Amino acid sequence: MRQSEKSASADETSTDQRILDAAMTLFFRYGYSRVVVDDIVRELAISKKTVYNHFGGKSEILTAGIDRFARQFRQRADEIVNDVDLSLRQKLNAYLQHIGGSFSTVNKKFWDDLKRSEPVAYKQANDFRRDMQLQYLTQLVEEGVRVGYIRDDASRQIAIVMFISAVQQLTDTDFLSQFPADISRQIPATTQERIDLVLNILLRGILTEKFYLE
């Protein structure tokens, strides 16, 4: 590839990323259905033609944004769980911070709006959230079994399923709205706090004494 072609390709990639950055920020902040392409254009001070030269429309931008989010999440998760210099405790802490940091930027209203307005994209994002947690949590739990920190019985599988289910339900306002206000008010506001509480509750049921002693 000639230098001029490489430069053009890099410029296109940079423009793609700028559009995705601006669009996803707006989607998370205001909700997907409330944002139109004109809002993205104003945010970036570019022409509408430029946006449509790179993406077919708002829904295509959303799909590309979800795909990019998934790639970035996997990359960091792989780094954490495969880091031989980290103990299991450190890996668990780093991975849970990664989950919280990744999803805390996603407003609950965004999930609700997406569920109503773009059900296919909502399913894609929700499936990713479930599958990634299942993959990496299973890997960490199995490592815990090998080193003797986690009990080698069916409780660990139940704990994984309960954790994933709890995190998904606790970010679903339709689910939370079923409960009395005096209960829902006591639930932490941020995703990170909810994840930490759920994990602390579940880990007490599967950790061995060795985990606490070392």
TrEMBL record:
Tell me where in this chain the HTH tetR-type domain is found: 13-73
Arranged from A to Z, the UniProt key words for this protein are:
DNA-binding, Repressor, Transcription, Transcription regulation
Note the PROSITE patterns from the entry: HTH_TETR_2 (PS50977)
Q: What domain of life is recorded for the organism?
A: Bacteria
What's the name of the protein?
Answer: AcrR family transcriptional regulator
InterPro entries membership: Homeodomain-like_sf, HTH-type_TetR-like_transc_reg, HTH_TetR, Tet_transcr_reg_TetR-rel_C_sf
* DNA-binding region, residue intervals: 36-55
Q: Output the PANTHER family linked to this UniProt entry.
A: HTH-TYPE TRANSCRIPTIONAL REGULATOR RUTR, HTH-TYPE TRANSCRIPTIONAL REPRESSOR KSTR2
